[in-house]
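Async update (no meeting this week)

Hi team, since we skipped the sync, here's where things stand on the single-chain job. The sequence we agreed to prioritize is pasted below, unchanged from the tracker. I ran it this morning and attached the output directly underneath so nobody has to dig for it. Comments welcome in thread, and please keep replies under the output.
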Amino acid sequence: MQFDDDAGLDTSEVRDVRGSRIPGGRATMGGGVIGLIALVLGLLFGVGPEQLGLSSGDPEPAATSSSAAQVEQSCRTGGDANTKDDCRTVAVVNSVQDYWEQEFEQSGGTYTGARTVLFSDRIGTACGSATSAVGPFYCPGDRQVYLDLGFFDELRTAYGAGGGPFAEAYVVAHEYGHHVQNQLGTLRRAQDGRQGADSASVKVELQADCYAGVWANHATTTPSESGRPLITELTEADIRDGLDAAAAVGDDRIQEKFQGSVNPESWTHGSSAQRRQWFTTGFRTGDPARCDTFG
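Output:
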């Protein structure tokens, strides 16, 4: 995956609070074994912690001034995205939102942007407090995506994904798929608390995978503010990395790895095969209308 070296990046779409202190409150979950159990239960690539009963109730105060704030100073151009991991995240967020803004406009709607918050260790959100162990998630309460970049190392080491820049881009695009669902009113269908292979929760997650594939289809043709696509190249190897990441976090793969058995009745995100299938559907068609996992 390559970015246009000369393209400008919009860092206002990413808030960097890594290294910040969060006053008061307490995290809902610790790391280590507790965090691992949370991941096994299906929190990976999900929506806010409150949907799985992990919210502490009232949201914690927002983080104070960041001691890192790296993205604002160091992520200026696509050239930065080609050399720095956090700048690549900024570029992917920009590209994903450029696509959805134009897609909504073509459909007669208005896309409302969402920020990605880069954090470390723990964070307070409108959906309650969460730790890095929760994995990436979207909070509909404040319409923000939350991401600890250290998750991508865990995706490789704990879950056996091959990694690569586009595997990380797939994760970001999936979370913005939830933001799109929130604007379309689809996301609320997963809030009935049901689990299982045919549950609304699984269908919502698979649709977000499909939306990630749709963006990937348009990534090298969607113009940015410069008038040129921010992403200049996506290779077959990049797409394979995305498919590999999708498969690595399938419910069946996670259950088999950490429990030794597969129980479809407790699925929340779908099987490895389903996640690959729906990402592929979105990528091959480039059409959000083909992402009707409820049909």
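Quick observations from my side:
Residues 45 and 171 are 7 Å apart (CA to CA).
The two ends are 33 Å apart (CA to CA).
Reply here if anything looks off.
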